[in-house]
Amino acid sequence: MVWTTYAGEVRSSRRLGWRIGLPAVILVIAALSMAPSRGTVLPLRADGVMVEPGGVVATVPAGSDAAFVPGSSVLSSANRSDPAVSAQIDDDRRWLSDGDIPGHGTRYHAMSERALLDLRALTSPTGALIAAPVTAWRHVWPRDASFAAAAYAVTGHDDEAADVLGFLARVAPADGEWEARYLSDGSGPPDDRPKQLDSAGWVLWAVWLVSQTAEPDVAAEVLEDMRPAVIASANAIVGSLEDDGLPEPSSDYWEKEESELTLGVAAPLSLGLRSALALAPQLGVEDPFVWSNAARRLDEAVAREFGAHGYPRTLPDGGADAAVTFLAPPFAPSTPEVSAAVRDTEVALRVPNGGHRPGEAWRKDVDVAWTPETALLALALAGNGDRDDADRLLTFLDDYRTPLGSLPEKVDSEATPASVAPLAWTSSLVLLTLAELEDGLPVVPAAD
After folding, report:
1. How many domains does the chain have?
2. DSSP symbol at 308
3. What Rg do the C-alpha atoms of the chain give, in angstroms?
4. Of 18, 51, 84, 245, which has the highest C-beta tally within 10 A?
5. How high is the pLDDT of residue 39?
């Protein structure tokens, strides 16, 4: 139907062109290309992931009517008289008890517990954290892995946080310019997708957060392993800045090629430089003047250029974007301007099912909620003290988990979980939001 309508409108514009000329045709087609589209939403690929005896991870098909043994990632249909099955259940329960479950005792306890167990299942013994357990998602995104390391750290699972960052240390580029994603065996990228500047910022933040929250011996190990990557990443961010203090255009969390600078790149790079500055004394970087000078220039440019327009996706009027959350706690100290922009963005990006799309400029599937963006807004609202609104978004995420309790990538226009599940990024963000609401999270300080 969409194609028929579009084709008919193009034919009409061609007839119109005979009368008013080619410029009018171009304007009409341009307007059509900007119109929202319902697109095609992938149905739910899996209800979740299970762990078989011996630690083998497998997907559970959508619509399977399966259930888990409580406190584990073992299906209730497994033979519990098998010692290996019992051992796996005990191992999951022991692991949970060794850390914290944010939201314990609240309606979110089950969501939090499943998010932790799903993250564990998505993390290989080598520390490779895959984004989701199917097809093209079975790769390691530095961004997703960084959020997982942070979630592990704030829930008391320091070893897993160190493992995830250890994998990143092994694949870290010498020039600090991270690939968009890596094969889970650490052998390199899966394709020729362009590099993403924002990855450097997320990795630096994760290292800083783990250094703040992990046990001292684990933190020291992480800092030693990640020192070369931290220095290279910070230098790469400095090298990306242009005369106006802002970085060059790059792909960001929308995973698409960009010709204009987005807030989704500028904000994480600000976060990364501030994180590097905070880490400098622990890393033995005696005079990080270049980093501090660049951090001030970048922060001033973000406030001057993006802040003057209400923090849009692109300058000057690229519309509201969930990336504004990257400027809010725990990523930066709270300011009235950013807090107001977060609240405005939450309203602007809300879709009928109660979740949120990535941005106003997102033209596909305009009635579909993306759970990472919804969770990012929940985290920022929690960090700004807007507890009721954060709770509303957490309730949405809790209500639309899969039948096995995992967090999907999307909730479609029919209010049904869609695409892949579990999604590591959303699982991590839910855990971070619940931790923020309970005890608060460390906030990366402003550049001096």
Report:
1. 2
2. G
3. 22
4. 51
5. 54
